[in-house]
Design a protein that fits this description.
Helix 3 runs parallel beside helix 5, helix 4 crosses helix 5 and helix 5 runs parallel beside helix 6. This protein starts with a strand and ends in a 5-residue tail after the last helix. The strands form 3 sheets. A 6-stranded mixed sheet has the order 6-7-8-3-9-10, sandwiched between helices. Strands 2-1-4-5 form a 4-stranded antiparallel sheet, with helices on one face. A 4-stranded antiparallel sheet has the order 12-13-11-14. It has 11 helices and 14 strands. The longest helix has 16 residues. The chain is α/β, with parallel strands linked by helices and 314 residues long. The structure holds adenosine-5'-diphosphate and magnesium ion (MG). The site of magnesium ion has 5 residues, from helix 1.
Amino acid sequence: MAFVEVKKLIKNYGEFCAVDNLSFEVEEGEIFGLIGPNGAGKSTTINVITTLDDFNGGSVTISGLDIVKNCSQIRGLVGVVPQEIALYPYLTALENVKFFASLYGLKGKELHESAMKALQFTGLADKVDMKPKKMSGGMKRRLNIACGIAHHPKLIVMDEPTVGVDAQSREHIMNSILTLKEKGATVIYTSHYMHEVETICDRIAIIDHGQLVASGTEQELVSMITDCRTIRVKTKWSADFDVNKLTTTLSALPGVNGASVDENVIKIDVKLTENDFSYIIDEIRKFGLPLISVNCETPDLDAVFLALTGHDIR
Ligand code: ADP
Ligand code: MG
């Protein structure tokens, strides 16, 4: 039995179905990525799994326990790091962590030591007396994480923990998630940054409009689109060049899933029926653009998302 089993989960807000028959499993000790664009239903799913919200259909078990029947036991097993930072601005960092850990029954010396360890772990050992209102976005994020993990949960659920943080805090958060896994925790991690998920997750579920698009390891997901390639053409254009016309024209070509530009590089995601993309290069040449370099790569998870949903993740 998997550590977390989500089966045919349904969550409606009135007439609107935010989570639509969603099923996935998370194995004990893995980092599981839940990825999808804004509004895909990630937070709603997380809130249901962590018993913060009710649901309309399906079932969820964690460590074999049903989230409805065994709600209070589940709460002891799970640590949540919510998408919206939840901290008390007038309590110090240490007081914040102690408050949240005390909700799980930690007391006295154990409470103090666990809170200090969580602050150390998130790189805030020298900020124990600082109040959140004086902290940077990245520090608040890390404190938010410390509050979610101080009671040593077996399952840690993090909802977009890197949104709005500086590069240094992001790196720290990514590394701390890997350390939590090394220490034996199971982690569910949501993000709309494919690159983060590719870097740290053992397995990934891609969701869109509340539905599962695909799930598996990064390799399994990429192998679902073995006939797809990402072509990058480095070129150069003048300030008055109509970039929109170029991408629209390329997007309309047969086999092209999407085209975009970044600086002077044109990125074209294609599904090749024959191993020949010369017609795409010919089209670029018609715009009178020089070819500085052309690369044809196997696709990344962004391309998987594009190929499977027909639209970009952002
Ligand atoms: P994500 O976390 O993937 O960005 P959410 O789970 O927050 O997505 O939202 C999924 C969908 O449900 C969105 O269309 C959002 O507008 C809608 N939604 C979320 N919370 C509520 C709510 N409390 N009432 C009504 N609609 C909601
Ligand atoms: Mg969300």
